[in-house]
Amino acid sequence: MEKNTVRREKIFEHYVPSDEGEGNLGSMENAEEGFGEKVVFSSGLEEADGPQKYTPGVTSLTEDQMFPLWTSGRKQTRQSVRTGLIAVKVGNIGLWDVNNKRINCSVLCVDRCHVTSVEKPQMDSKTGHWHLEVSAGLERPYKVKRPQRYHFASAGVEPKKKTCGFGVTEDALLPPGTELTARHFVAGQHVDVQGVSRGKGFQGAVRRWGFKGQPRTHGVTKAARSLGSTGTRTIKTKPGRKMAGRMGGKKRTIQSFQVYKVDGINNLIYVRGGVVPGATGSFVFVRDARFLRQREANMYPFPTTFTTGKEVPDDLVQTADGVNRHAKEATLYFHRKIHRR
Asked: What is the pLDDT of residues 28-47, one digit of tens each?
């Protein structure tokens, strides 16, 4: 029996839309007709015993079974739920509105965010939503394990650094390989931002919970910032008692942030307020506001904004009040800050 030959690397091919044409994302037919360009990248895999058999869960379904409404048209309803995206917290900046009032904004950068897989609803799911896996960031191939390389290659994207899942309704499904940009949101709508707060280590009760403390005079010695009594012999300490312990480093969600500005050229999202959880450079999850989703259903594009390459630069930058002051200075500042990482 002839022994299988050794292949040092496996090449994956996929097609992406070019600037010249309106091809569908990830469509090989459109690429062959001249609407797209061929992209080849190496996964760095070694096959010593023959080709590796890998069948991701989404490939067992046909396109009509996985995306029944993808070709028949989309109609948004009040129960429709879009997908979110992954962004990077860049920093804060001040912008000015029509009345020359300064607005503190947090800047989020959408760094090469793509849809990587789609899963059907589970049998025990209470909401019945589909699971849409979204990945962002660029990771070096040698830092990604072999199953993940095959997973990203099956979606036609490069290895990613951060992955998460979003629950969506059936009419908001997107095929693997679809790119999500900052234009997924529009200026004026509200979003929920979730991230991991800054870790502050072990802290006392005064800083962790905001206790007043004891007076600094009249015999109080080295106990002004102490916790005090936490229980007695008969009244034991109950679970959940506010005591000293680790502060920060937990998942937090800030709801109903207003999107003040969307920069589609540099993929930047400006949200009002400077309380986005997480440190600078950390990943955050952004999606439509939960409690304002039905009220703002007609504001944002559904299911997302697709890039055609014919957009006018003036239309790619939107603000909530229509004023785009200090846009050039802010773009240059965050362009340097992003590429410094």
From this structure: 343 334 333 333 333 333 33
